[in-house]
Write a structure and sequence with these properties.
Helices cover 41% and strands 14% of the residues. By secondary structure, the chain is an alpha/beta fold. This is Hydantoin racemase.
C-alpha cells in the first residue's frame, strides 16, 4: 500500500517531522510518501493562505495518481482542497482535521481543539460543523503560536500547548484534546502523558484511516459530487490544470 502524505505548505522541515510520525504508526507493508508542493505559502494561517495552497496540493494529487498511490492524507488542519482532491483521486483522501475530530468523537463525549493563532479558530469551528461533529466540539482554543514557531525550539511550543490543553480539560469540561495543527504531530504522546487524557492529532489518525479504507477496498464514490471534474479549457496561469477527458474502459 502506498499512501501519499501531502503537507500543503512549503516548509519541508515540517513535512519531514510529519513523515516520521506517520511512519511510526503505519502498518508493515505501507509506504508513506511525504511531500510539500513546489509552490504555495510557507504556512497556512488564513483563508488566503488556504486558497493559494490548493493548486500546489492538487498538483501533488495528480502526480500521485501517476505514481500509483492508493490513498492520500492532506496534512493541514484546515483540510484545504479536500473535496477537489477527492474529485481527482481514485483512492480515498482524508483531511487531518476530519480524521482527528472523528477519532476524538469515538473515544470521549466532548473534545477541545487546541490550535495556533486565534484567527484560525473560526475555521476549525466551521470544519466541525461541516463534518457533523459540532455537538462533540466543546471549544476551540488558540495557543497564539504561529505555525512556523512550532519549528523553532526557542518558542517553548510544547509547554505553551500543553498548558492550553490542560486548561481545556478543566475549563471546557472536555475529555479528549485534538491538536489543531499538523506541525504539532510530534508533541502528541508527550502532551497526553502530561495531562492524563487522550490527545489526538490528525497526521497519524489520517494515515490509519486511509489504510483502513484501502484495506476495505473502499474509495470515494464517483457517482455524485465527487465525480471527476468535467474537462474544459482553463486560461492563463491555470492552463496546465485543465483535465483531459477520462479514458474509456
Amino acid at each position: 500500500m502506498k499512501i501519499k502524505l501531502i503537507n500543503p505548505n512549503t516548509t519541508w522541515s515540517m513535512t519531514d517531522k510529519m513523515a516520521a510520525c506517520a511512519r511510526q504508526v503505519a502498518a508493515a507493508g505501507t509506504e508513506v510518501v511525504a511531500v510539500s508542493p513546489a509552490m504555495g505559502p510557507a504556512s497556512i494561517e488564513s483563508h488566503y493562505d488556504d486558497a493559494l495552497a490548493v493548486p500546489g496540493l492538487l498538483d501533488e494529487i495528480r502526480k500521485g495518481e501517476d505514481e500509483g498511490c492508493d490513498g492520500y492524507v492532506i496534512a493541514c488542519f484546515g483540510d484545504p482542497g479536500l473535496y477537489a482532491a477527492r474529485e481527482l483521486a481514485r483512492g480515498p483522501v482524508v483531511g487531518i482535521a476530519e480524521a482527528a475530530m472523528h477519532c476524538a468523537s469515538l473515544i470521549g463525549t466532548g473534545f477541545s481543539v487546541v490550535t495556533t493563532l486565534s484567527r484560525t479558530c473560526g475555521m476549525a469551528w466551521h470544519l466541525a460543523e461541516r463534518y457533523g461533529l459540532a455537538r462533540f466540539c466543546r471549544n476551540v482554543r488558540a495557543s497564539e503560536l504561529a505555525v512556523l514557531a512550532l519549528e523553532d525550539p526557542r518558542s517553548d511550543a510544547r509547554r505553551v500547548i500543553t498548558e492550553a490543553c490542560r486548561r481545556a480539560l478543566h475549563e471546557d469540561r472536555s475529555d479528549v484534546i485534538v491538536l489543531g495543527c499538523a506541525g504539532m504531530a510530534d508533541l502528541c504522546a508527550q502532551i497526553s502523558a502530561e495531562i492524563g487524557a487522550p490527545v489526538v492529532e490528525g497526521v497519524t489518525a489520517g494515515v490509519k484511516l486511509v489504510e483502513s479504507l484501502v484495506a476495505l477496498r473502499l474509495a470515494t464514490s464517483k457517482l455524485g459530487d465527487f465525480a471527476r471534474p468535467l474537462p474544459k479549457r482553463y486560461d492563463g496561469d491555470l492552463a496546465r490544470y485543465a483535465l483531459l477527458p477520462a479514458p474509456q474502459p
